């Protein structure tokens, strides 16, 4: 009887150990599956945000190009969308949900009216710079912006229009909306000024950990 009881106890102990091992394996598999699911969700979110940023930045570039192409002279004149001919950076905030596509000044991420949709997820700011074409300047490969029906005159006055379309998703990344707002007040890219140490929009947004993208385009303006 003692031997039988001892044998049964050993069997029960072995079964308990086997069950515990199975539970550990199942738990590890569950944790691994959960981590894989979270990683997949993170990748999907990142891909979605990247696509959203790309489309929003492209929208900014397209909208300002279309606005200028409608009437180049009016766009360059007083009150026009690109009326600043000083060569300095001028900010415009894209607001397709409002009465006008652009409003003067940098975008304000703390205001829902500054986003490109009522969902208030992504905002787009276009910064432009008008530069007079001088000897030595090149505009090869740059698209021409001309009033419809206007012909290009090789002796006509030309300017270069450089645009920087920056899209930001303030709800992602480590930067607050107020911090992003401060960054958008800075000048755009400083590549026109060799050796310049200007603190740009790109520098600021990168430093604060914002999620953003910038599209740069250059055009010839033929008067």
Summarize the structure.
The chain has a six-stranded mixed beta sheet, sandwiched between helices.
Features:
40% helix, 6-stranded mixed sheet, 223 residues, alpha+beta
Describe the structure.
- The structure is a single chain.
- By secondary structure, this protein is an alpha+beta fold.
- Strands 2-1-3-5-6-4 form a 6-stranded mixed sheet, with helices on both faces.
- It is elongated, with a radius of gyration of 29 Å.
- The termini are far apart.
Distance between the termini: 111 Å
| Rg measurement, Å | 29 Å
Strand order of the largest sheet: 2-1-3-5-6-4
Low-confidence stretches: 147-155
Tell me the overall shape.
Answer: elongated
Please state roughly what percent of the residues sit in beta strands, choosing from under 5%, 5-15%, 15-25%, 25-35%, 35-45% or over 45%. Answer: 15-25%
Proportion of helical residues = 25-40%
Give the tally of β-strands. 6
What is the number of helical segments per DSSP (H or I, 4+ residues)?
4
| Overall average pLDDT | 80
Structural class: alpha+beta
Query: SSE order in H/E notation?
Result: HHEEEEEHHE
Largest sheet: 6 strands, mixed
């Amino acid at each position: 009887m003692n031997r039988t009881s001892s044998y049964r106890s050993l069997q029960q102990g072995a079964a308990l150990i086997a069950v515990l091992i199975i539970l550990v394996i199942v738990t590890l598999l569950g944790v691994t599956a959960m981590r894989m699911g979270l990683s997949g969700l993170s990748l999907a979110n990142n891909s979605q945000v990247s696509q959203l940023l790309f489309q929003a930045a492209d929208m900014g570039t397209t909208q300002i190009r279309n606005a200028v192409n409608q009437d180049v002279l009016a766009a360059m004149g007083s009150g026009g969308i690109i009326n600043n001919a000083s060569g300095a950076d001028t900010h415009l905030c894209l607001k397709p949900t409002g009465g006008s596509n652009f409003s003067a000044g940098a975008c304000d991420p703390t205001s829902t009216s500054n986003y490109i949709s009522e969902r208030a997820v992504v905002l787009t700011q276009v910064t432009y710079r008008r530069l007079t074409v001088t000897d030595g300047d090149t505009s090869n490969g740059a698209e021409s912006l001309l009033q419809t029906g206007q012909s290009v005159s090789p002796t006509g006055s030309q300017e270069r229009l450089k645009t920087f379309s920056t899209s930001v998703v303030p709800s992602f990344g480590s930067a607050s909306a107020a911090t992003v707002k401060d960054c958008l007040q800075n000048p755009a890219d400083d590549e026109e000024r060799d050796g310049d140490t200007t603190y740009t929009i790109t520098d600021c947004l990168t430093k604060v950990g914002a999620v953003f993208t910038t599209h740069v385009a250059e055009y010839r303006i033929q008067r």
